[in-house]
Amino acid sequence: MEEKKIIKLIKKYQLQDHITLHGFIENRYLWNIYKQADILVLLSEVTLLKGVEGFGISILEANAFGVPAIGSQGSGIDSAIKHQKTGILASPYNCNEILDGVEFIIKNRNHLSQNAIKWAQEHDWEIIGKKYAQAIKNA
Q1: pLDDT digits (tens, 9 = 90+) for 5-15
Q2: Domains of the chain from N-terminus onward
Q3: Residue 63 in contact with residue 116, Cβ under 8 Å?
Q4: What distance in Å separates the CA atoms of residue 76 and residue 57, rounded to the nearest whole number?
Q5: Rounded CA gap, 45 and 23, in Å?
């Protein structure tokens, strides 16, 4: 039912031409979505029932296409974003922080985009796999 609330807010503030809610998307279509995006927003909550968001792999996917992200502080997402380098970390409950993050990304889009691509390349599975293998070997 969160989707209905979000749609209502989008209409209230006349943002229909600026925001797209995609829902589930098959992997083969993701590249096209990311190529069209300016910012990825992933504001997860930390709750007792749901736990905490993991690393936030979708952030790295967006970064690979040069898309900076806004993500939640205090969750696994803060490991996937270098604050003010590849995106912005903000409280998911603080509208001003989120809006400031959007403004920062718009003003620094090119720089953040270049950093995001490099950051995603550093997290390529081949590189990460070698790090895991070395950690296991050293254990």
Answers
A1: 889 999 999 99
A2: 1-36 (no CATH), 38-138 (3.40.50.2000)
A3: yes
A4: 10
A5: 18
